[in-house]
Amino acid sequence: MQQMIFNLSLFREYIANYMKTKLTYRADFWVEVFSDLMFSATNLIFIFVVFQHTPALGDWSEAEVVFVYGYFMIPYGIFSTFTNLWNFSERYIAKGEMDRILTRPAGSLTQVMLENVDPPSLIGSLIGLCIMGASWSQLGLAFHWYDPLVLIVMTLGSVLVYMGLYTALATISFYTDAPTGIAPLMYNIQNYGRYPIQIYNKGIRFLLTWLLPFAFVGVYPASFFLERHRDLVMAWLTPVMGVIFWAIGLWIWRRGVKRYRGAGS
Amino acid sequence: MLAIDVHQLRKQFKVQKNREGLKGAMLDLFKREHTEVMAVKDISFQIPQGEICGYIGENGAGKSTTIKMLTGILVPTSGRILVNGFVPHQEREQFVGSIGVVFGQRSQLWWDIGVIESFRLLRKVYKVDEADFKARLVELVETLQLGDLLNRPVRKLSLGQRMRCELVAALLHNPSILFLDEPTIGLDIVVKTEIREFLKRLNREYGTTILLTTHDLQDIEALCSRVIMLDDGRIIYDGGLEELKERWGKGREVQFQFTDPISLLDVSGLTSGFEGVRWTKENEVTAKVWIPRELNVSDVLSRVVGSAAEISDIKIFETNTDEIVREIYKTGSPEAKEQAKEAVRG
To answer: ∠A132-A30-A126 over CA atoms, to 5°?
Structure first.
């Protein structure tokens, strides 16, 4: 608990420093926001284009697929804000910045996450929320008092699934010299999670549910709110999978750090 | 109490062997070959609290690897380390609060924001009390004369200014041991001297134990009472600097300036009878004589001074550490060399 409070206070400091840095490079900040928005827009347009050619995917309507995409954007934005580990291998392993991290009295993963915190990604989450809201009314779904609470729990679960997987992925850099091409592969698989899983064959469904559980960052938790596709078991497995995968990710990280060998000098 | 206690410390790295050519690269793709490289070979040493110890050796001798194991960055392959009563890699987060680290090639500071902002953040990370932090900062800023730099972003500082800020960053939490890896690399002589003075003062006033690696032997001469010399992962010398000079300094050099032009033959004649004495001519009126350690300098001097030649100036050079160290590197370990000498004598 004390550790948690300490980490939160660190978070505040790092965000403050982030802001001070970004204020010196204001253009950079807006360019990033803009490119994030463009990226989401193209994804959305893709869905619309698909539905111009077919009335339904499986038995999912356009509005339902857009709803799932809206949900998908929320945890993805939060995850991208806090677990921006794309350049981990290069910056911390190849350039040896991990040295500095390890000489400071705070969790190594906490520090790496905080140093790369990327608040503009949160705007994606907001837009996702809006898309979800729009589809919600379009589909004429009922609104229950507990829906916002469930959304928060589901989002947390999805974020933890992401963090666990990408932390484990970043840890690979401790074991191999050369940065691998696994990250883009992972990223592509992750994108399957934002479409209804029922449209895929058995093998891919198994992969997306149990091995690289990206179905838990999109379709499963979102199904809780979609009356026609509701799958309560899978939906409530989201926080469970989140905790399990986060624990696995942390465990792998702790082992990986012991293998760190520094760079040059 | 010992600040650092190292026993039979070893670090092995697995290094990938890259085979040559396209065929080799293809083979590597399927079957990687590894070689084990031992960077640190079962070294042991103890450093008591309050000592300034220099850790020297050529590139790749294992200095940085040792320092990284002592600071908890690397996990040793085998052996025992105890620093400040902690096993560094096992109790890392707790341990690093009691040490300060300055790696000359890496910065502790945030590049784009004012130095003071970095210090504030480090205060949080190290959980330093606000009042303590302020007092400490005022003192450090004053001794290192950083006053007007504090609000400048790191990227606009010169290397010397940055280095002084790095020192402050490493000392804000008042560590009892300070590790410095190449602290004066690339700095001009004025800044070097300032930093040395500062470290001496730190050691004197707070009893901070300092372990520093350096290639600049002037650092060692200015600061260290003790030197640990490393070669190929092994300790080849561990002891006082004076002793090192005495044992391995091979002689002294005296320069004479004569009033009249001299020839090498003339001056050599002056010291005939002294064995091992060697003259070199610097210019028309100046000559240097090298006197081996076995001979008494004053004997040689008096002979030259007592001669007919008129002398306008005399300078005595002590062999500097640089030369001694170079000599030791060239011949391998001093012990091995000593043994060889003994063997020849016996």
So the answer is: 15
* pLDDT tens column, B271-316: 877 877 888 888 888 888 878 777 777 888 888 888 777 888 888 8
A-chain residues near B154 (CB < 8 A): none
Q: Do B126 and A104 touch (CB under 8 A)?
A: yes
The bridge status of strand B99-103 relative to strand B177-181 is parallel
Q: What is the pLDDT of residues B311-338, one digit of tens each?
A: 888 888 766 666 777 777 766 555 554 5
Q: Which of A24, A104, A262 sits opposite B68 (nearest CB)?
A: A262
Residues of A in contact with B153 (CB under 8 A): 24
Q: Answer yes or no: are the C-beta atoms of A47 and A25 closer than 8 Å.
A: no
Rounded distance between C-alpha atoms, residue A130 and residue A230, angstroms:
21
Please tell me the predicted confidence (pLDDT) of residue B346: 40
Q: What's the pTM?
A: 0.81
pLDDT at B108: 85
Distance between start and end Cα atoms, chain B: 42
Neighbours of B14 (CB within 10 A): 10
**DSSP secondary structure code for residue A179 in this structure:** P
Joined tokens for residue B210 = 């300092």
Top-level class of domain B251-318: alpha beta
Number of A–B residue contacts, CB under 8 Å: 77
What are the residue ranges spanned by the domains of chain B? 2-6+43-246, 251-318
The question of ipTM being above 0.85 is answered as: no
- Among A13, A258, A265, the residue with its CB nearest the CB of B64 is A265
Contact B70, B83 (CB under 8 A): yes
Q: Tell me, what's the pLDDT at B343?
A: 47
Question: Which class for A173: exposed (0-12), middle (13-18), buried (19 or more C-beta within 10 A)?
Answer: buried
Is CATH 3.40.50.300 correct for B2-6+43-246?
A: yes
> Are domains B2-6+43-246 and B251-318 of this chain identical in fold?
no
